[in-house]
């Protein structure tokens, strides 16, 4: 499709203020998805648009949204309690980002009456309500959970349902992701509050069958717009995609070399890890080993700091951002030079979304995935499954040597010796990584039993092998133990509060001869994760699980220090998450939305695991 200028839109033409702001952006031509979707939306059609990440979907809905709202304003000015447009986005970061772009338009004098409000989880709902009443926004940018809450809210005369009566435009951004993340019910509930006389724009990177279902439920005869940059290729065209095969024990060494190498050191790098615990650990280990760059970490369980981390990543030219899939989609950080995946992602479509963080809008970009020798079939798998071609990264960027490994692992050992906090994080990271490995969609290629867990623990620089069932029969000699004497029972925390708690426990031990909470803390695990998961679900009904979750939440809210300790004794953070996602799956199974087979597959129950 040939690209057109914004002013070439003529029936009807874009309004002056919108054109002026677009000019300030410096975007002369529309992108293909903008060229296709905007005229349709302006002509009062519902649109479901599919286009790769970075293809300019935000403006594809913001521009018609502003036009539609202005047009109505000219006929009947928007009332103080009227909401004209809703934009729903799956994550806070994305919502915030949309809201920032929108703010640039609303800064124009002639558009400022269309004020907006950002409504996302994390802030207090009371504040949201107060602001809604006071600012009377015409546009809401929200995440689905919080919006649903506000609709259901009774007794504080907000009555959001009444405010959306003359809604003109609904946008579901990253619709596929909304559904992936289990927001289907929320989205459907929200749709129930909205008038049917409205336009809807549904935007996603991939049209899944679930998106199609949603289209059926919520849209009137939508026009489907599908824009592929290159017909058969799923990733942005100017992206170079590399892989590097590394030995399991050298995985961290290889990453570090890469981050130190001139290949990557002149720009921003995003590094994806399989779990939140991995990000926590490496975000602590990496900075002292890479003092020349600023290293940031972000993951889904960080609630309040996320926005400021993203902001720092944006502003620092050579920053390295360690992250999980929370950030794999939609986030628009300009000029990321490299997207690195330390491990293959849990499913092939995440691969595309992760690498979609770079090479946005005509910029060049590079992506690198580290693979183990046992994982080389993944290259072919991606090619078949996602039509992504990977080429091997050149030697000069990364070539880990056996001789370099020992000193590096020793550095990791020393860092943990110096802080029990780091040691704890390392253990948790490793265990979570092993468990994440069993969740790979392509478990035929990525098999846990092919992993040399001892070597992997070496890459993590662990001081000892964790006690986990997967390691019970470990026969290999791949684990590199510390070369110096270290008494693990004497490690101390740098964090004063934690250290205080540890000392107290120690005291109790010295007085009574037994460790407080020890038994629970060292939950005896004799089964592998896969078996445990199934057993857990068999044993507990979903109701009980929910109750337990509520209780934990209550405890967590009751106070930081004490409750945290308590929580740790019962479940590890990973388990909590796992439970939450298990419950979600279980619900879907019960509602017959998925088959037993799907369920087992998703739970990894049929994983061939010894
Ligand atoms: P998507 O939502 O499709 O992943 P975004 O809307 O986040 O993509 O846009 C990606 C980048 O492209 C942003 O930095 C945006 O400012 C830029 N962009 C959007 N439209 C244009 C355009 N017409 N010309 C040039 N750059 C554009
Ligand atoms: Mg987007």
UniProtKB/TrEMBL annotation:
GO molecular function, one term: ATP hydrolysis activity
Residue numbers spanned by region Disordered: 499-574
SUPFAM superfamilies: P-loop containing nucleoside triphosphate hydrolases (SSF52540)
UniProt KW keywords: ATP-binding, Coiled coil, Helicase, Hydrolase, Nucleotide-binding, RNA-binding
UniProt-recorded name of the protein: ATP-dependent RNA helicase
Family membership noted in the UniProt record: Belongs to the DEAD box helicase family. DDX55/SPB4 subfamily.
Annotated Helicase ATP-binding domain residues: 38-225
Motif (Q motif): 7-35
Function: RNA helicase.
Notes on the domains: The Q motif is unique to and characteristic of the DEAD box family of RNA helicases and controls ATP binding and hydrolysis.
Ranges of Basic residues composition bias in the record: 543-555
């Amino acid at each position: 499709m040939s690209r057109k200028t914004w002013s070439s839109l003529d029936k009807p033409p874009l309004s002056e203020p919108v054109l002026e702001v677009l000019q300030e952006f410096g975007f002369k031509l529309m992108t293909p998805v903008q060229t296709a979707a905007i005229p349709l939306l302006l002509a009062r059609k519902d649109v479901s648009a599919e286009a790769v990440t970075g293809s300019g979907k935000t403006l594809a809905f913001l521009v018609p949204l502003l036009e539609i709202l202005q047009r109505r304003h000219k006929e009947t000015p928007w009332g103080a309690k009227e909401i004209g447009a809703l934009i729903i986005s799956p994550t806070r970061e994305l919502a915030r980002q949309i809201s920032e772009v929108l703010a640039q338009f609303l800064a124009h004098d002639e558009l400022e009456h269309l004020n907006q409000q950002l409504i996302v989880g994390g802030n207090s709902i009371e504040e949201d309500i107060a602001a809604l009443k006071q600012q009377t926004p015409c546009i809401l940018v929200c995440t689905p959970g919080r919006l649903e809450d506000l609709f259901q809210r009774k007794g504080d005369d907000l009555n959001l349902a009444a405010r959306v009566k003359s809604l003109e435009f609904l946008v579901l951004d990253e619709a596929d992701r909304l559904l992936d993340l289990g927001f289907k019910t929320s989205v459907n509930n929200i749709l129930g509050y909205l008038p049917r006389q409205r336009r809807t724009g549904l935007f996603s990177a991939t049209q899944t069958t679930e998106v199609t279902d949603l289209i059926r439920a919520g849209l009137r005869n939508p026009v489907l717009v599908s824009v592929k940059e290159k017909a058969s290729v799923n990733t942005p065209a100017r992206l170079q995609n590399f892989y590097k095969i590394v030995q399991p024990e050298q995985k961290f060494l290889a990453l570090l070399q890469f981050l130190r190498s001139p290949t990557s050191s002149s720009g921003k790098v995003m590094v994806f890890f399989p779990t939140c615990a991995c990000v926590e650990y490496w975000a602590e280990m990496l900075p002292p080993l890479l003092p020349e760059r600023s290293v940031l970490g972000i993951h889904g369980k960080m609630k309040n700091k996320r926005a400021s981390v993203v902001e720092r990543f944006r502003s620092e030219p050579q920053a390295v951002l360690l992250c999980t899939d929370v950030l794999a989609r939609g986030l628009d950080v300009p000029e990321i030079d490299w997207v690195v995946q330390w491990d293959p992602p849990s499913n092939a479509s995440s691969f595309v979304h992760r690498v979609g963080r770079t090479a946005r809008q005509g910029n060049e970009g590079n992506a690198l995935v580290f693979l183990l020798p046992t994982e080389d079939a993944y290259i072919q798998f991606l090619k078949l499954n996602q039509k992504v071609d990977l080429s091997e990264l050149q030697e000069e960027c990364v070539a880990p040597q056996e001789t370099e490994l020992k000193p590096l692992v020793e550095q990791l050992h020393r860092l943990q010796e110096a802080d029990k906090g780091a040691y704890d994080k390392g253990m948790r990271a490793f265990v979570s990584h092993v468990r994440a490995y069993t969740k790979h969609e392509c478990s035929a290629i990525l098999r846990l039993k092919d992993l040399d867990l001892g070597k992997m623990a070496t890459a993590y620089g662990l001081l000892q092998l964790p006690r986990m069932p997967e390691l019970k029969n470990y026969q290999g000699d791949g684990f590199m133990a510390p070369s110096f004497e270290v008494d693990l029972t004497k490690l101390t925390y740098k964090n004063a509060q934690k250290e205080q708690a540890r000392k107290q426990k120690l005291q109790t031990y010295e007085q009574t001869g037994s460790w407080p909470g020890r038994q629970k803390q060292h939950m005896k695990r004799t089964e592998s994760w896969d078996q445990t998961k199934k057993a857990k679900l068999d044993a507990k009904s979903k109701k009980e699980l929910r109750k337990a979750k509520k209780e934990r939440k209550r405890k967590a809210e009751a106070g930081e220090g004490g409750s945290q300790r308590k929580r740790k004794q019962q479940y590890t953070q990973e388990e909590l998450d796992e439970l939450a996602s298990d419950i979600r799956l279980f619900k879907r199974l019960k509602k017959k939305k998925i088959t037993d087979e799907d369920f087992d597959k998703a739970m990894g129950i049929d994983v061939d695991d010894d």
